[in-house]
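Hi, here's the filled form for the chain we discussed.

Project: internal
Contact: R.S.
Residues: 251
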Amino acid sequence: MLAPMLLLDTDTRELSEAAFGDDQGRLLPEETIEMPLRRSQDYKEDSRQILEWLSRRWLFNIPRSLQTEGLWPLGRLALVDHAGTVTSRLQQVIVKLCKDATRLQLLPRVVIVASPSGGTGGGMVTDVAFLARQIIEEQPSANGIEVISVLIHGTNRNPQQQELAAANTVATLTELAQFHRSGVMFPGDAACGLKPREADCGALDGVYLIHAGEELSTQQMAETSDRVAEFLMLDAITPAGNLLEIGRAHV
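And the returned structure, exactly as it came back:
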């Protein structure tokens, strides 16, 4: 069984490489969502609502590339911009996952893989996790489905980007910890279609934080991605997954 997948990114080049590259593991075009930002002037009509949670300095200094350029708050802005598309496509993926799992008598699991070091992954992962949980709870036969996140922190050899990556990872982990702390409720956000959740009803059943290393070359980053993919495969379709699940249950 091929697990349904969905890749979200503001970088069209990365999406193109994932969907049209020579690698046999390339994604289908319908398994990707392009999420570019808009130009600063294009947010004029929506600025009042956006400025309730985003500082003016971010909204009116959108990079010319229309990508996050590693800026964590802009990752969430990209998600808000494309919330309707993301919700619809994520729902399709989860419904398919549930149907396939029911047919094969398996317990499905939703895995969110992201880099908290970057603007896109770090800025989106919390809301995407709660969105996935919300969609799962709307399914009639989705009891017991796990939602876990695999977060990969690493830096390249650019000193300025190293500092930004560290700050992004701290911000992402702090946000996730806050909304999964005992007695804390998730307020929801209408802009992303997220409903409030009661205290102690977090989105994630487990989080893996992988420290890939510092000052990594492009090749080393690719090798880390390969190892993470291998881990996910072992967790999903081999007996090793049972041991990993027991470990998560006792954390």
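Let me know if anything looks off before we file it.
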